[in-house]
Records
---
Amino acid sequence: MRKSELAQLPEIPEKTPVLIAGPTASGKSALALEITRTRGGVIVNADASQVYDCWRVISARPSVAEEAEVPHRLYGHLPYDAPYSAGHWLRDVAPLLAGPERPIIVGGTGLYFLALTEGLAEIPATPPEVRAEADRIALDRLLADLDPVTAAGLDRRNRARVQRAWEVQRATGRPLAAWQAETPPPLLPLDRCLPLVLETDKDWLNDRIARRFDQMLAQGALKEVAAMRDRYDPALPSCKAIGVPELMRHLRGEIDLEQARRDATIATRQFAKRQRTWFRRRMRQWHRVDPAE
């Protein structure tokens, strides 16, 4: 973490929650750790892959030493096959907002932050049979079945979001946009916290992504994925973490390790591009911090 990042921050009033969003590999966790070291608080996870106990290295979770140095919450607290959504996360984070320590909420899952600061519609759970039906349908058909208002608000390349909208419509008979129009007040409005989003040069970030995956391999990412080989299910959210499918293909003898490395790096860069676009569109009121400066 660069000292210039702290210098870019506005004054943080005592006990004010801090939100740190940004694309993968942009240095969010390092900034959260430094703020917590110097100004106190508890670091709270807002990354959908880091909630699972099977992934530390491959999801870039804080190290054991970092977790021991300052308080961390909602990291690795779920088994690999546990269902988890923005609604689950919001219920988990709610008591931490009322705790004695300032929450430093950090991660790359934009939907979590949106649910926290703008509210989350109380949509009934999707029946398993509807989800199984959706799993068998191609992305373009899922999109074609959606109402125009819902479709206009989605990232059309993000199958998980498109499928979720289709499932809601199929299960409830109402479009997702109609449910969202009834969203209750947020738990933490933007005027009650310091919202930060890391935004930097694409080439700087791409270089960090390549170097970080090499570091993951050196730190045991392949061994971590191999330990899940008998439980691997590509339909589970935990098993969709970037790097997991690629290394699993290598372990099954389908590609060599160098190809797995290239594929995972490309997938990470594509994911970071989608994140950067989403954050620019949906987090216009957030304070920008450039980690490359």
---
Amino acid sequence: MPARRVVTGRSQEPRRRYAEELRRLRTARGLSLRALAEAVGWDPSLFAKLESGETLGSPEVAEALDQFYGTPGLLLAMWEMALGDLTQFKEKYRRYMALEAEALSLWQYSVSRPPGLLQTAAYAQEALTAGGLSGKELDQQVEARVGRRKALEGKGAPPFRVILAEAALRNSLRDPKAWREQLEHLLEWSERPNITLHVLPFGTGPHGLDSTDTMFLRLPGGRTVAYAENDVWGELIEETNKVEQLHRTYDEVRDLALSPAESRKFILRMLEEVPCDPSI
């Protein structure tokens, strides 16, 4: 006899479960969205979007609601689970994202943009909009991209080495203030003990990763996989010989790049080129 399916009446998808729990807590108190907003201090439209699953909001909102409802830590934990829900990623990235979450160390080469793990929300928004996303899907993907960075924080965070082609640092945002924040963000994160950042300046000549963004993940058990992509395709590479060959090419590119100290000086010089905000 097949096992009985447990029916709870609630979604088991973390993002939907979070939205349902927020709605349940509010209605149990007999509050309207406007009354809740007045009590907690945010706009009613935000709570409407939270309860419909249109957005996850910020951890500060989850913490404020935990305090208001007397559910210490519960809603924040549900928010973190919803943020990490792999169902918000496109199908071709799902297996890669699952492996990235397990990685003990990461190495990346970025051709034309700062790596997703180190993008600000403003950069992610503009990059994803250029890729054709809009509306609810855009909001979800921005949240997901920024949320991935949590894996690099805290005790036990994996080492992450990044080689940035100079083109990635010349591909600026339209808003100078947002672009300045992105460059400052890279500098700030490069100071973390688990982050190593190299810049590959123009003029180093052709190499084997000229047009391909590449990420390597070292997994538990010692296995390493790679994910390579350009504007047309993306491929998860798991065959040992291919990964080793690609990693040798990565090492050759790293040898051409600036040292971490010189790379920081390079980005600082770029910051001096960004127009200042005239309102300051």
---
Amino acid sequence: MKVKGIKRGKFIELLEDIAIEDGVEVSVEFVDTVSDKTEQWEKLQEVIGEWKDDQEITDIFAQIDQERHADIGRPVNFDDHF
């Protein structure tokens, strides 16, 4: 079970209810989220711009843009409404 909490002095306030009784001994593992985010950013920087000069990706996005802006319209029969 993984539950987030906030440290307040010597206590950790859980951010959700859990199904264990008061007084039950638990083990707490601290995760350095700052280092995790730094590592994630470093990994992301490695792939940023990877498709920058990829003509296939450029063509795909051009086709998507063209389809998004196409005026497809629909037939309307005014005789049925009066």
